[in-house]
Amino acid sequence: MGEACDDLFENALQQLHQAFEHIDVSDDVKALLTVPKELVTFNIPVRLDNGDLKTFTAHRVHYNDAIGPCKGGIRYHESVCLGEVKALSFWMAIKCALVNVPFGGGKGGVQVNVKELSKAELERVSRGFVRGAGDFLGPDKDIPAPDMYTTSKIMLWMSDEYNTIKGSYQPAFITGKPIELGGSEGRETATARGAFFCTRELAKAKELDVQKTTVAVQGFGNAGSYLAAMLHDYGFKVVAVSDSQGGIYKKAGIDPVKLKYMKKKWKLSIPELAKDMKAKKITNKQLLELDVDILAPSALENQITKKNARNVKAKYIVEVANGPTTPAADTILEKKKILVVPDVLANAGGVTVSYFEWVQNKEGYYWDADTIDDRLEKIMVPAFHRTYELMTEKKVSMRTAAFLTAIQRIAKAVDAKGLIGV
Ligand code: NAD
After folding, report:
1. Ligand 1 centre and the CA of 182: distance in Å?
2. Domain that holds residue 93
């Protein structure tokens, strides 16, 4: 596990070094972007419902804060490790700079399987994370958010813990909160909406006939389920979806809203619903290798590797998950002329609306859902086209094009400041 972990950060650094080959930036910038600024690892002691004490290892990383305070989610997963959190915080720094959101990159993770905990135990883990991280977090220093297996409810517990410690109401401490308690309209759907805008603009750029364009979505959580619904609603043919237990395939197309409703109501996994959806059961491995136009990995990292990249038949990959494609796979996909819309662009809708939430919290004035979606579109659509054009102009991958824009912005901030305050 530790090895796989370091691999993910190594993958991130490989992407960075590939971008350095196409950009003229100072050695200061190169040095600062190759290592995280600071990090903390701690153990959260939690009293379980049965009276036992259990500790959960947690990490929080500040990768780079040249542009602004660090921003990034907290992941709950039993395999969370430091290398993964470092990689994710690095991608956050690139992502924020790419879409011009005034934040640096941060990320956190707790080694925990949420499915094994009661609600009360989960609350104690979440409050414990805030106590353990202490002053490493703060509304003008490092603002957490949800990630895999962390929800608005968890953000609320963390927010409440912070307010209790500080003795004042500080909603800008964390984003992804429930709407009634300082959250933003549109945050729940933001990552998917951003990915949807990218997919729609990709279809326009490639002059695809949307009605005939088939899509497979891996992962049916916050990002994947809303994305599938938005694509279906727009006219794309979503033919396959999956969760951690496996997936389903239906040539005529799946109704993701109906599937989500049944999954929630009956508490069943996607493959268990194959019959009800009149679809065929498939594995996650098969989903990645389906003959579809667009593949949207929306679950975990390292899904498309040198082992299966040659079998990928999709013409386009929209990376909703962070780090789903390894650098070795990227090389294979490039040779196969498969266009990859990179994670740092495709899933940037989440951090963009998190930024909107933070601004609203600071102002104490809240925007309506249409304003949020409209402002998100005004950021995502130009970001997609700028990156697409730079890719064409520089003859590089779309990932490298995204990195070039981001590095340029970070470099300006670093060089302007000198070494003080970076
Ligand atoms: P989530 O916890 O809501 O959903 C995760 C989904 O992935 C679930 O459907 C789960 O069943 C599925 N899954 C888990 N293991 C799997 C496996 N081995 N194979 C296939 N599916 C599996 O998480 P999310 O918030 O939707 O995040 C998904 C991805 O998107 C992550 O990589 C996350 O970092 C990225 N992301 C999320 C946000 C956000 O705002 N939620 C923002 C940016 C990036």
Report:
1. 24
2. 2-16+23-169
